[in-house]
Design brief:
With about 220 residues, the protein is α/β, with parallel strands linked by helices. It has 5 helices and 11 strands; from the N terminus they run βαβββαββαββαβαββ. The two termini are about 20 Å apart. The model has no long low-confidence stretch (mean pLDDT about 95).
């Protein structure tokens, strides 16, 4: 049965507010009647990132937030108080930065890079992460956020394997999907995600809706943020 959050509270993780800091406030949140902690992105991001949406390595936790043991301890305390944990994930883009080894490989080796297909790149036009005509899909007009191609199974696996492992281990009971409008095929992505989790899972998406636009009924999600 899908767990439906009753009241969520977002915790914004960064180097000044880590997993251990969050652990200390869980009892207070429980006392307020919060049913689920909503975590900002927890995967490795650019050094000093205040938000976590500039992911540089989706295969590990952000070391600036703490260790795996710290995260497991936070999850344990959340569960001890009868609460759930919603994880915020970023399938649309990664940081176009030397701190991102995949991006660095692409900029150094071009189409010979093993990550050449990971990014949504036009090679007649590629000029790195500067200029208005950078030659790759960006997050809106932000050159430091390069669009990735999660519609390719290999890219989906590489970018989601760690998060899916955390879910399989019971660390999270829901997901918030960042900027789903940027994906090539949102429905296909959401169906793949639900299939990989293995059971119907609580998912909400960040969807930009026009005045008279509604969320597609075919999407396997609980709603928008």
């Amino acid at each position: 049965m899908v767990r439906i959050p009753g009241a969520t509270y977002r915790l914004q993780f960064n180097s000044g507010f880590k997993f251990r800091d969050a652990e200390a406030v869980v009892p207070y949140l429980a006392g307020l009647g919060i049913t689920d902690v909503y975590a900002s992105p927890i995967l490795k991001a650019r050094k000093g990132s205040t938000h976590g949406y500039d992911v540089t390595d989706p295969t590990r936790l952000n070391p600036e937030l703490g260790t795996e043991e710290d995260f497991k301890s936070l999850v344990s305390v959340i569960k001890m108080h009868g609460m759930g944990l919603l994880l915020d994930i970023v399938p649309n883009h990664m940081a176009a930065s030397p701190e991102n080894p995949w991006w660095q490989s692409l900029t150094e080796q071009g189409q010979a890079s093993p990550y050449a297909d990971f990014f949504d790149t036009g090679w007649l036009d590629f000029r790195g992460s500067t200029g208005n005509q950078a030659g790759y899909r960006r997050f809106f007009d932000i050159g430091e956020m390069a669009g990735i191609r999660v519609e390719i199974p290999q890219v989906f696996e590489a970018t989601h394997s760690y998060i899916l492992r955390l879910i399989a281990e019971g660390a999270g009971n829901g997901l918030r999907i960042d900027h789903i409008d940027g994906l090539n095929d949102p429905l296909e992505y959401l169906e793949t995600l639900q299939q990989r989790i293995g059971s119907r899972f609580f998912v909400v998406v960040e969807k930009i809706l026009e005045t008279k636009e509604t969320l597609p009924d075919s999407w396997p999600v609980a709603g928008t943020t």
